[in-house]
Amino acid sequence: MTLFGINGVRGTANRELSPETALQIGKAVGRTYGKRIALATDARDSADMLKSAISAGIMSVGSDIVDLGILPTPTLQYYVKTHSDITGGVVITASHNPPEHNGFKFICEDGIEATRAEEQTIESFCSTEISPAKWSEVGEISKGTGAILEHVEAVVSHVDAEAIRAANLTVCIDCANGATCTATPLLLKKLNVRAFTINADPQSESPGRSSEPTEENLEPLMALTRQVGADLGAAHDADGDRTIFVTEKGDYVIGDVSLALIAKAVLQKRKGKVITPVSSSSIVEDVVEANGGLLKYTSVGSHVVVKKMEENMAIFGGEENGSMVFPEIQLCRDGLMTLAKMLECVAINGPLSEQISVFEKYHNVKCNVQCPDSKKSKLLDHFTDMVEGNRTETVDGLKVYFDDGWILLRPSTTEELFRIYSESKDEAIAQSRADEFESEAKRFLGSP
Q: Domain locations in the chain?
């Protein structure tokens, strides 16, 4: 049985993720993480069902549960990290996936997402008969309190809170009807930020928008930001480990650009290494190097970024999807810390639109080609032969550099797709190169 994708376990509730599957996963988690496990969910309709099932499994093997309710994923991670009696954690969430989906993220004792080795341990347990504890040794469940306040206060302590408070900022925030509906308004209140909230009711039966904070999905936030004259707009995904921004003019800011801006702010205070996946825009490398930092690339996936940051003692890291990691507070993606850091940037350095206007403009095109798993390596080999003579990078798939841009050719690890990313300062070149490689992929896959 293969459970794990690039980021925990995900599937459709009551189909791939049935109560029976959750029960078995709970037994495996109890065996892997030991005596006392923290548990939280996002706001999906299937959360209670899956929480009940996984809780039964965890307790059946003798482990106790601290139920923290609906929390952002980084809030649970901070709780696990800072409470010595907690030996692991589970967040029931499918992140940005549609509301019919759900999933599990597993958290180590130090608050970091499970390593591949731990995921393999859990998966191997799931494929075996796990003996229950004696009736007198089954685990117990208790309610945990204070996790949101503890995390929010930690975030506030890691930014220039006085500068933010003095700036009297106004922010429009879209919580995606998810796990940040309590935490983010509390954070803004602590920082003396006036907030206009939308999609801030934690429910998913008829959410105000899709959980994925794309430009199309954030049009209401962009319009509201313009209408009320806010200093900033911000949007989370369903479990709150990502934040995407909107300028005071109501313009959508792609994740690469906000990542570059915050990397600049971090490096102006302290020099060091910055980690990002090979899929990130060249703007990140430009800004990091211009501000005395050293950029290191890794493969796609938050757990890989975090591992690389830990190995390199990096001062900052993140991905192009709005994920950012601030090791001074914790080694995980933290949407609340990302928001607070951007508020600091605006409070100290002025309007977001002006700050990003000085950056070089890159154009990015992304597309997917249907590709059976059995043909992914063959297609990658074909592309490797096709671009022989060009400078390449093989950290994750094949990244090919040209004088006027680059293209990344990457097999998906979770779907039968081959992903194509193209970038250039010239929009037409970025598009034509993506079209060229997409057409070649389809031609190759259509051949015998």
A: 9-145, 150-357, 363-446
**Closest listed residue to residue 57, CA positions, set 104, 94, 100:** 104
* pLDDT score recorded for residue 2: 58
Using the predicted structure, report yes or no on whether residue 323 has a pLDDT greater than 90.
Answer: yes
Q: What is the mean pLDDT of the chain?
A: 93
Mark whether 95 is an active-site residue.
yes
CB 222 within 8 A of CB 233: yes
Q: Which token pair is 122? A: 């859990």
Q: What angle, 0 to 180 degrees and rounded to 10, lies between the N-to-C axes of helices 282-290 and 255-269?
A: 10
- Residue 256's alpha-carbon distances to 8, 131, 317, 320, 362, in angstroms, are 24, 47, 12, 5, 10
User: Any idea which fold 363-446 has?
Assistant: TATA-Binding Protein (3.30.310)
Tens digits of per-residue pLDDT, 11-48? 888 888 899 999 999 999 999 988 999 999 999 999 99
Among 60, 95, 211, 323, the active-site one is 95
Tokens 């998966």 locate to 123
Q: Assign domain 150-357 one CATH number from 3.50.50.60, 3.60.40.10, 3.40.50.2300, 3.40.120.10.
A: 3.40.120.10
Q: Would you give the distance in Å from CA 55 to the centre of its chain?
A: 25
Give yes or no for residue 168 having a pLDDT over 50.
yes
pTM for the model: 0.93
What fold characterizes domain 9-145? Alpha-D-Glucose-1,6-Bisphosphate; Chain A, domain 3 (3.40.120)
**pLDDT tens for residues 347-373?**
999 999 999 999 999 999 999 999 999
Rounded CA-CA distance 118/109 in Å is 12
With b for 16 or more beta-carbon neighbours within 10 A and e for fewer, the 114-132 pattern comes to beeebbebbbebbeeebee
